[in-house]
Amino acid sequence: MLNRLLNIAKTSILLNLTKTMSTSFSLKSTIGLCQMRSTNDKNHNRQLVQELFNRSKDKASFLFLPECCDYVGTSIDETLSLAEPLTGETVQFYKNLCKENSIWGSFGGIHEKIEDRNDGKISNTHIIINSDGEVAGIYRKLHLFDVDTPEFKFRESKVVEGGKEISLPVETDIGRIGLQICYDIRFPEPSVWLKSRGAQIILYPSAFALTTGKAHWDILNRCRAIENQCFIISAAQQGKHNEKRSSYGQAVVVSPWGDILARCTEELEVQFAEIDLNKIEKVERNMPCFSHRRPDVYSIDFKVRFQPIENFIFEKYPIDSRTIFYETEHCVAFTNIRCVVPGHVLVATKRIVPRVKEMTANENKELFETACKVSKVLDDYYGVESATITVQDGEHAGQTVKHVHCHVMPRKAGDFLNNDEIYLRLNEHDKEGTQEKRRDLQEMIDEAEIYRKLF
Q1: Rounded to an integer, what is the distance from CA 28 to the centroid of its chain?
Q2: Cβ partners under 8 Å of residue 306, min gap 6
Q3: What are residue 140's phi and psi, to 5 degrees?
Q4: What is the dihedral of CA 50, 274, 14, 399, to 10 degrees?
Q5: Which of 35-39, 57-61, 298-302, 415-419 tops mean pLDDT?
Q6: Helices (runs of H) and strands (runs of E) counted in the chain
Q7: Taking a C-beta distance cutoff of 8 angstroms, is the pair 254, 231 a contact?
Q8: Are residues 138 and 126 in contact, defined by beta-carbon separation less than 8 angstroms?
């Protein structure tokens, strides 16, 4: 069993690596790596960004701006007061630049105002804008820079609320990009996870402090590139922003082998570098570290930002999205058309997978995690302390819909005269003429609406 699970896990990783060589984008691209010195003058900072675009529009297909490209405040109050929502003027300005110049852009973290926050805190938000001027990716910084030493004091958490999830890599014209911000570079786990999900390029737009930059900047960027066998692009702030704050600079592009391909040294500068995705394949072939990992011993899991499913097909049966009450990256939970007991629901993989043995490691893990979470919620809702959770794996096990799914059924004392009768009823419940009547759609929608509020 252990070897079987290990093989499944390895297959999943290899599948992800195979997807990294998708040809839906150019394998070779020229990008613009930017460095600037922001102040509290937002209009001046926009002019600097405009200048960087002007220098790049005929040379690069993608431009990378640093953290705080919108502004650097002189105080907590000013930093909060200058923040804008993603629908504000600054992001619109960035959108217009990308569209007018037909260039993709990476911006941030920028200071995102959250309208419904009671404590006034903002988000440090990294956005990707495509060449049509549309937001293609969003990530909110997970790790906040809180440091208090005799030489340096900075508490990002006084202003910023940490992100709650990691975003899946963004499909772009130059490859699949993983989003991070500055201090995140000190935490290798997110980058490994992004790589396992197909990232070919990982971004760390930064405003690194002088002392830590001198000591660790190059080392950290090269480490993340080498251990993940991908490109690292780290745009940077450089220079004195105000009397309290200065940034190290030295924006870099690093190859999958750890070579520095480009570096900025001036306060306002753009350097150009070629991103050749063929180099990733070569490094992976010569040093196949990811296939040598031991997922049977260790793994990395994150709460992920996923794209909600719009048209879920349960083998061949379209499922009304209004009956779906819980969703993860790989699984959905939805109300059942015929119920053996009250609260009988289904948890299925999003991908049409006929048998358990054909599931990937991620699907396997999420299916049963989701079933457990759904069962706990239904236990509380129905006031019970038992549940039958079962999978009919294949035709001779009673499977009628050839799509892996769990039946989650809350149980209470005396719901069946013979406790195991539930399995006989389950085997017959979706056939005409049985006591489990086919429910109408509205009843299923109403039930899903109730459950949805419990998560």
Answers
A1: 25
A2: 168, 327, 328, 329
A3: -110, 130
A4: 40
A5: 35-39
A6: 10, 25
A7: yes
A8: yes
Strands 304-305 and 166-167: parallel
Active site residues: 405
CA distances from 61 to 138, 174, 272 (A): 20, 8, 10
**What number of other Cβ atoms are within 10 A of residue 297's Cβ?**
7
What's the CA gap between 128 and 135, in Å, rounded?
A: 6
SS3 state of residue 33: strand
- Binding residues for substrate, by number, are 336, 392, 398-401, 407
**What gap in Å lies between CA 344 and CA 336, rounded to an integer?**
6
Please state, in angstroms and rounded to a whole number, the distance separating the CA atoms of residues 167 and 337: 34
Quick one: average pLDDT of 122-138?
Answer: 98
Domain ranges of the chain: 2-292, 306-452
Q: Which of 284, 285, 286, 325 has the alpha carbon at shortest distance from 308?
A: 325
Binding site, by residue number, is: 336, 392, 398-401, 407
380: tokens are 């509380």
Tell me the C-alpha distance between 352 and 315, whole Å: 6
Task: Copy the structure tokens of residue 316.
Answer: 């061949």
Dig out the tokens for 378 from the structure: 């239904």
* DSSP-derived secondary structure letter, 432: T
- For 436-454, how does the pLDDT look when each residue is reduced to its tens digit (9 = 90+)? 688 999 999 999 999 999 9
Domain 306-452: CATH class, spelled out: alpha beta
Are the beta carbons of 261 and 274 closer than 8 angstroms? yes
CA atoms within 13 A on the CB side of 254: 26
CB atoms under 10 Å from CB of 55, counted, come to: 17
Nearest-angstrom CA–CA distance, 162 and 122: 9
* The pLDDT of residue 293 is above 90: no
- Entry pTM: 0.74
C-alpha distances out from residue 93 to 46, 121, 127, Å: 8, 23, 13
Pick the CATH number of 2-292 from 3.90.1300.10, 3.60.110.10, 3.40.50.2300, 3.40.190.10: 3.60.110.10
The strand order across the sheet containing 345-349 reads 324-327, 331-335, 345-349, 405-411, 386-391
